[in-house]
Design a protein that fits this description.
It is built from two helices and six strands. It is α+β, with helices and mostly antiparallel strands. It has a domain at about 30-90: Immunoglobulin-like (Sandwich). A six-stranded antiparallel β-sheet has the order 1-2-6-5-4-3, with no helix packed on it. Strand 1 and strand 2 (about 35-40) form a beta hairpin. The radius of gyration is 15 Å and the shape is elongated. The protein starts with a helix and ends with a strand. About 10% of the residues are buried.
Length: about 90
């Protein structure tokens, strides 16, 4: 219970001071360029990957990308670029 209260307190602080959520709370940033390119920042790891579906672990959940011909062009500790035809993105 204490951890949830701590997270809620941080969120209130971020909102009131207008701080960037990605920097302070470790929120992921998803930048989609058309239907062909996506840049994911602040992810923890790759759960599974094939040309139709990619699952990523984030600090606060999971990101699922679905499409055709998906390919991880590059990945670092901070970000990754995925190309292909992106049909659906979900965050769980």
């Amino acid at each position: 219970m204490k951890k949830k209260r701590n997270i809620a307190g941080k969120e209130i602080l971020v909102e009131s001071l207008k701080l960037p959520r990605d920097t302070v709370l470790g929120e992921s940033i998803i930048t989609l360029t058309g239907k062909k390119d996506v840049l994911i920042e602040n992810y923890k790891g790759i759960i599974s990957c094939n040309d139709a579906i990619i699952w990523l672990q984030t600090k606060h959940g999971k990101i699922c990308l679905e499409g055709r011909g998906l390919n991880i062009v590059y990945y670092t500790n901070e970000d990754m670029k995925i190309t292909g035809t992106i049909e659906h993105i979900s965050i769980v």
